Amino acid sequence: MSSARPAAADGAQGAQASASPPRAGRAQVDLERVKPYADHLDDGLMQLSFTLPVPYGLAARRAAQELAAKMGLEHPEVVHYERLTEGYTYFVMFGECVHSVDYASLSSESFDIEFMTEQEIEEYAHEHIGRPVVVVGAATGTDTHSVGIDAMLNLKGFHGHHGLEGYKVFRTYNLGSQVPNSVLVARAIDLGADAILVSQTVTQQNLHISNLTELVEIVEAEGQRKRLILTCGGPRVSNELAKELGYDAGFSKGTYPHHVASFIVRELAARLAESEEAPQSAQDGAWADGRGANAGAPRPRAPGADG
C-alpha cells in the first residue's frame, strides 16, 4: 500500500523537510500521530493495487471492497479494475486509513548511519585503518541481476556516485551474478577480505531469506564470522532484516555507494581498535594502487585477525 500523493521525498531530504518550519498557511504536522496524506493533512487516504484470483465482474469488485474493509480501511472505493486473464482480476483502490504512526519515536531511535562523503571516507580510512580495505561482492544463488552489486562496486557507480572501485581505500572484487554462496565465501577467505557484500533482487517465495541465511551459516562454519563484515542489499532488504539474519548491516532502495563505504570503514576501524591492531601507514604507493580487482596480490592477514 502506498499514499496516493506523497508530499515529501524519503531519506535525508525527508528528514530535512520534517525539521523545517511549516510554510505560511500550512498546517503543523503532529509527528507523534502521522497519517497518510492525499488531498489534505490527516485525511488518511491511501492507494493500493492488487490482484485477486477471481473472474472479472461485479462480484469481484465487491470482494475487493470487502477485503479492503477487513484491512481496516474506511470507505474503500474501487477506482479501476480489469481482467488480467481467465479467472484473475486486477484492482486499484482508495481507502481511508484510521491508524497513525509515532514518527517522532522512530526517528529518535537513530536508525540512520552517519554517512560520509567520498573524500571523508578516504581520509577516515587513511587515519583509522591505514591500508587498503578488501571487499568481495556478488549477486548470489540463482539471482541473475547484477545491476545492484555493479552500482555499489564498479567504478561508474550510480547516479553520479563512484562505486567502491573508484576509491583509493578499497580493493574490490565483483564476482557477478548467480554465484553460489560457498564460492563467494571461499573467494573472500582466499583474498583475505575484510567485508562481503551480497545483492539480492529476486525475492519470490522469500528466496532471498533462505539464500542470505545460507551465506551466514557458511561463514560461521568456516570460523570467519568474527573477522568478516557481512553486508547485504536489495529492494526488500532492510537493516532490521539483515541484522535478524546475522548480517552487520542491510541496505535497500535509495542506497548509494558512499553509504555502504561509510559503514564498512567505520565498522572495520572499530574492530581493529578492539583487537588493538594499529593502523599501518601506506607503503611506497600501496595505498594509491589499492583500487579494483587487478590491484595485485591480496595483502597478508595480520596475526590474530581470525579471532
Radius of gyration based on Cα positions: 24 Å
Overall form: globular
Distance separating the two termini: 45 Å
CATH first level of the largest domain: Alpha Beta
Give an overview of the whole structure.
- This protein has 307 residues and is α/β, with parallel strands linked by helices.
- The chain has two domains: 28-106, 2-Layer Sandwich (Defensin A-like); 118-274, 3-Layer(aba) Sandwich (Rossmann fold), CATH 3.40.50.280.
- 31% of the residues lie in helices and 19% in strands.
- The chain has a five-stranded parallel β-sheet, sandwiched between helices.
- A hairpin with a 2-residue loop joins β3 and β4.
- α4 runs parallel beside α9.
- The protein starts with a strand and ends in a 33-residue tail after the last helix.
- Residues 1-19, 281-290 and 293-307 have low confidence and may be disordered.
In short:
This protein is α/β, with parallel strands linked by helices. It has 9 helices and 9 strands. The strands form 2 sheets. The chain has a 5-stranded parallel beta sheet, with helices on both faces.
